[in-house]
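In the previous lecture we treated proteins in isolation. Real proteins rarely work alone, and many bind small molecules. This record shows how such a complex is specified: first the sequence, then the SMILES for magnesium ion.
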Amino acid sequence: MKTGAKILVESLQREGVETIFGYPGGSVLPIYDELYDSPLRHILVRHEQAAAHAADGFARASGRVGVCLATSGPGACNLVTGIATAYMDSVPVVAITGQVPTTMLGNDAFQESDIQGITMPITKHNYLVKDTAEIARVVKEAFYIAGTGRKGPVLVDLPKDVNTREIKDPQVPEKVYLRGYNPTFKGHKRQIEKAIEMITQAERPLIYAGGGVISSDASAELVDFATQHGIPITTTLMGLGCIPCDHPLNLGMLGMHGTEYANFAVTESDLLIAIGARFDDRVTGKLDTFAPHARIIHIDIDPAEIGKNKRVDVPIVGDVREVLKEMIAGMRKKSACEAWQKRIKHWKQHHPLRYGKDASCLYPQFIIQQLSDLVKGDAVIVSEVGQNQMWTAQYFCFRKPRTWITSGGLGTMGYGFPAAIGAHFARPDVPVFDIAGDGSIQMNIQEMGTASHYRIPVKIAILNNMYLGMVRQWQELFYDRRYSFTELPPVEFVKIANAYGIDGVKVESCDEVVPALTAALECDGPFVMDFRIEREENVFPMVPAGAAINEMIGGHPPS
Ligand SMILES: Cc1cc2nc3c(=O)[nH]c(=O)nc-3n(C[C@H](O)[C@H](O)[C@H](O)COP(=O)(O)OP(=O)(O)OC[C@H]3O[C@@H](n4cnc5c(N)ncnc54)[C@H](O)[C@@H]3O)c2cc1C
Ligand SMILES: Cc1ncc(C[n+]2csc(CCOP(=O)(O)OP(=O)(O)O)c2C)c(N)n1
Ligand SMILES: [Mg+2]
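The predicted 3D structure, ligand included, written as tokens:
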């Protein structure tokens, strides 16, 4: 005989889970009692939101399913922002919550909340398990759903009596079969042929690659395909790392804070090949001026994404990796579009990313560049949200997939630090940095407790402008500099770190940057850097909301 809690823990182990992030409470006491002497490693966070972000960071860095655990009511509700963050970026997470006993469901019992109802629109699927005999099957299904097709979070809500009841060792199904859930992996042959035909004819083709390339682990195939046919690649924020930053075909990020040359290329291309990207509004700007001269091929595993925002000429529903393999095999010889490549090279030379040159100023872009030069791609870089995130996307040279972790779709401040903690458990072999803003870091700063407790060597680089900088930037540009509630009083972050037993350094000038980063890399535990940057530095170029993407503030028209 086994309790539901034991069955749960064994089911997690069967899925290959080694680490879970959680926070205890009344309804999950039976589960915590099982964890007490289980080989599963449990990391006690200081806020359940952080458990969800840590599971998400682990998943993005490893490509595996991340797991978090919280008690019923307030604990489960604290997971919500983390679950929504994972949902918006299609990240595989299994969130396990305790629930009041089945006999009390719906009675407004102590610490009851309808977490299944609450998370319905922000999970790929969710379960309220009412029978102990179902636990093993549900856990298996949850991992399968989270980690296949378009990945995403799945919630499993477990009432306390379901966890305490004892049953005979349950039968575990060999395979998962779910009627109505059959993701398509192979692309339609005829559609692939049509796409090949279009690519062969195109004179100004451009690949627009997104997060789907990373989650499909298709970066090698993508670079192969592009190099074979000389097709330039621009990536979304979520696609950074799928082609090395310094690859001659790489145009960097497109969209609101993309490079000028990427946005020009989209505007002038005659064939846009969207690969695992979802035509987000931060990317397209004004929709009818996005890629106005291009026919569009869209490869996506989720049929609901096809034609959602933009009309597509050749849709291919399938897994990026599978489809690219077929396209590589089927491609006929194609001219390298030399005139197009020359034009792009010219834009790259004449419209580089740029920032101020005043040696007495501590520019955030300089800090990111120094970090990039120091770690040379061998690090996992996580960011918070705001200007810090955009400067990192623009100036860090990503060389490999799954080394860039950021909240793109929901844009969750407070995501970075706990996600970096999770990423460390996926990649203990490389340094993990959280590039933070002074606002964002204060949204989950309590996780310094977690980092210190387990000596998790996450390096926090706070780009401290004493502003909610990205919002201040919008106020400066579009609200006549009326800085309404965006100024933050100074905080001595190193003192806070010290109080948690974490070392750190405050940096106020350029020549202190490299020594601080080196100290962080040399320290074997967590480390905080409080960079006092230029307070009113902006992220440029910038496409104003609703404008065409080739009309950028801080840029100039294509020459
Ligand atoms: C302050 C801020 C500014 C931003 N500015 C920009 C910006 O300038 N530029 C920018 O690009 N983004 C920007 N973003 C991010 C933006 O909001 C979106 O998150 C991002 O553009 C979406 O990236 P994506 O299209 O790659 O889609 P993702 O959200 O990564 O979605 C992946 C797509 O691939 C598909 N997919 C998943 N797995 C597979 C598979 N195995 N095979 C095939 N298809 C698959 C999915 O169905 C989905 O359509 C910003 C965010 C913030 C917070
Ligand atoms: C939880 C949450 N609340 C509010 C916002 C809106 N928002 C986006 S960027 C930003 C400012 C971020 O400030 P900071 O962390 O200091 O970063 P900076 O832009 O200064 O680099 C705000 C408030 C958000 N994205 N997330
Ligand atoms: Mg700030």
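Summary for your notes: The longest strand covers residues 93-99. Residues 89-90, 150, 210-212, 215-216, 236-239, 253-258, 276-278, 280, 282-283, 300-302, 305, 319-320, 385, 389-390, 408-409, 411, 470 surround flavin-adenine dinucleotide (ligand 1) (CB under 6 Å).
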